[in-house]
């Protein structure tokens, strides 16, 4: 697929994610300091989260006025009188990112953020958005992603995953943008790039034995059980150390073949995964030739509202080793 053959949806998703990345990069440059982590100050990621959601929702509304969005954020907190400085900072960043479109008012910015309130479900078409996935990675200056996917009748049909801190293809531009279209494949291009750049195809690793795999998992041990992943790796004969990274950059890494496994092992019985934490990454891996299921080996179901109500945990692989990984996960979780 070349750039001029993109569908309208793919072009809109690319525009939305690229604009949002300009915002998150600007916030990172201007607001994240050495003190941010030591002072446990989350305000930079809060500004970037709201501004990113506003910019993506504005872009989607301009291209597809009637499409609902299931987004992680809403503007209730921002409307609070006490949050005037935060609100002003969000509005300023959105205005800069949309300067070539129209001057944005504060009311418009809040209304764009609130467009993310949709509930999703099994019928019809909606977008799902994580404006900054891997908020902790963002604050540490490590991996994070802007994740946008289109779901029709419960099936993911498009995904765009912007990873500002993954290496850019061919060292052009900045960051990595992965796009996937159902039945058409997965493609990559620099995320921030002046001018036209071609999409290049992305394929999963072709290893046939799980023992040869690199696997990736969350940095946060509260999001995926790292003791169990050690046991699973041992069972599969994997000797490589796990690659720990924040956000759906893990799906991008499996899609691109640098790792053959992404394990997300439930840590709390009551936790339900959120659809925006997975949809864009799942289609990227599947269309690159890989496979994604939950820890029981069942496909992820995106038609149950804002959460993956029917699934626990995630296993993403290059496909060839999927059954072996699911079997090892089952053994360890049952023991
Ligand atoms: N208990 C539990 N189990 C599983 N997942 C959880 C849990 N709690 C939170 N979250 C979600 O994890 C998202 C962060 O993704 P990762 O775990 O891949 O990255 S990281 O290691 O936290 O950096 C994170 O997304 P962001 O909030 O967008 O960063 C959360 O939606
Ligand atoms: Mg997230």
Automatic annotation (TrEMBL):
The keyword Metal-binding applies. PROSITE patterns: IMP_1. Keywords: Hydrolase, Magnesium, Metal-binding. It catalyses: adenosine 3',5'-bisphosphate + H2O = AMP + phosphate; 3'-phosphoadenylyl sulfate + H2O = adenosine 5'-phosphosulfate + phosphate; adenosine 2',5'-bisphosphate + H2O = AMP + phosphate. InterPro entries: DPNP, Inositol_monoP_metal-BS, Inositol_monoP_superfamily, Inositol_monophosphatase-like. One of its GO terms (molecular function) is 3'(2'),5'-bisphosphate nucleotidase activity. SUPFAM superfamilies: Carbohydrate phosphatase. Its cofactor is Mg(2+). It comes from the Bacteria. Transmembrane segments: none annotated. Its EC number is 3.1.3.7. Pfam families: Inositol_P (PF00459). Belongs to the inositol monophosphatase superfamily. This is 3'(2'),5'-bisphosphate nucleotidase. It comes from Natronomicrosphaera hydrolytica. The lineage of its organism: Bacteria, Pseudomonadati, Planctomycetota, Phycisphaerae, Phycisphaerales.
């Amino acid at each position: 697929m070349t750039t001029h053959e993109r569908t309208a949806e793919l072009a809109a998703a690319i525009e939305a994610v690229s604009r949002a990345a300009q915002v998150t990069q600007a916030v990172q440059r201007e607001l994240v300091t050495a003190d941010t982590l030591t002072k446990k100050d989350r305000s930079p990621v809060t500004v970037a989260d709201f501004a990113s959601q506003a910019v993506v929702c504005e872009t989607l509304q301009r291209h597809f006025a009637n499409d609902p969005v299931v987004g992680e954020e809403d503007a209730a907190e921002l409307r609070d009188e006490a949050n005037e400085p935060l609100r002003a900072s969000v509005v300023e960043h959105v205005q800069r990112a949309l300067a070539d479109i129209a001057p944005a008012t504060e009311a418009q910015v809040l209304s764009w953020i609130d467009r993310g309130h949709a509930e999703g479900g099994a019928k019809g078409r909606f977008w799902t958005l994580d404006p900054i996935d891997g908020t902790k990675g963002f604050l540490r200056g490590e991996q994070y992603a802007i994740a946008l996917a289109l779901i029709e009748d419960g099936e993911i049909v498009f995904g765009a995953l912007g990873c500002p801190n993954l290496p850019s293809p061919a060292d052009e531009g900045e960051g990595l943008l992965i796009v996937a279209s159902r039945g058409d494949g997965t493609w990559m291009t620099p995320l921030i790039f002046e001018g036209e750049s071609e999409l290049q195809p992305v394929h999963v690793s072709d290893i046939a034995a799980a023992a040869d795999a690199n696997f990736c998992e969350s940095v946060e041990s509260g999001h995926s059980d790292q003791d169990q992943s050690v046991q699973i790796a041992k069972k599969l004969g994997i000797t490589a150390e796990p690659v720990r990274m924040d956000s759906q950059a893990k799906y991008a890494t499996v899609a691109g073949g640098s790792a053959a496994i992404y394990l997300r092992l439930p840590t709390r019985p009551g936790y339900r995964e959120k659809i925006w934490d997975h949809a864009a990454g799942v289609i990227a891996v599947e269309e690159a030739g890989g496979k994604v299921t939950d820890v029981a080996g069942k496909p992820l179901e995106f038609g149950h509202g804002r959460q993956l109500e029917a699934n626990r945990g995630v296993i993403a692989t290059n496909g060839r080793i999927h059954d072996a990984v699911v079997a090892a996960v089952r053994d360890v979780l049952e023991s």
